[in-house]
Each structure stands twice: as C-alpha cells, then as structure tokens.
Specification:
Layout (H helix, E strand, L loop, with lengths): L7 E4 L5 E6 L6 E7 L5 H6 L1 H12 L12 E8 L2 E4 L5 H5 L2 H11 L2 H13 L6
Antiparallel strand pairs: 1-2, 2-3, 3-4, 4-5
Length: about 130
C-alpha cells in the first residue's frame, strides 16, 4: 500500500510559508501553496502590478474585484516531470521570489517526495494527469 506524504510546511520568514500537500483530485502530484499572502510585504510588493491590473479589469467589468486578498494561493504543483507554475495571476510573481524559488528547488531534489511521486505513477501509469 502506498502512503502519501504528510502535508509539509516550509517557512519563508515572518508569517508566510509554503505548504506542500497531495492533490486530492490527482494523487500523482503535490500542490504548493503560498500561505500568508495577504499579510506578507514581500509577496505584496512582488504582485503589485498583477493586483493593479486585476483592479483595473474589475473596474472595466472584465473580472472579479481582487480584494480582499486570499490568505492562501496555489502557486504550482510538483509531479514526476517537475515543477509546474499555477494558473493564478499571483502564481508566477510569488514563485519567482528568491526564498520561494530556493524551497521549490529543494523540493525537486527531495528524496521522499520523488519516491512518493514515483510510487503514485507506478500504481496507475495509465491514469491521466
């Protein structure tokens, strides 16, 4: 029986951290969430252009109002093929932060994570991603 990894927290300093959890819809990948986004000054500075763009779009009626900011944002996922940036407009700027990039690189080389991904892929190799 294959047991998924327990959710893991990786501190970024201050009140923010990355959270690694198995995707409930696709057990062959793990989601990476940025937690504390709504109160992290570095994250807010990194996403300022995106937030302004979303605010202007909402004023034109082209999207939802971007405030209040979410506390947790899925910034990407890791599977047997590597890192995949998320679809959120905040994902790319948050993933580009040096501390986040360092943790993602560490996760990509993490042996227990690689073993869990390989085991999940071996269990059902024909399942769609």
């Amino acid at each position: 029986m294959i047991v998924p990894l327990k959710p893991r927290r990786l501190g970024l300093g201050g009140s923010s951290f990355l959270e690694l959890t198995q995707d409930p819809d696709r057990p062959r990948r793990y989601l990476v969430r940025f937690c504390g986004f709504d109160r992290d000054r570095r994250a807010l500075a990194a996403t300022e252009r995106v937030r302004v763009r979303l605010l202007l779009a909402s004023q034109r009626g082209q999207g939802a109002h971007p405030y209040p900011l979410p506390a947790r944002v899925i910034i990407g996922s890791i599977d047997s093929r590597g890192w995949h940036c998320g679809r959120s407009p905040y994902a790319e700027p948050l993933a580009a932060l040096p501390a986040v990039r360092e943790h993602i690189d560490q996760l990509l080389g993490d042996l227990p994570l690689r073993v869990a991904l390989a085991a999940a892929t071996a269990r059902d190799p024909l399942a769609p991603d």
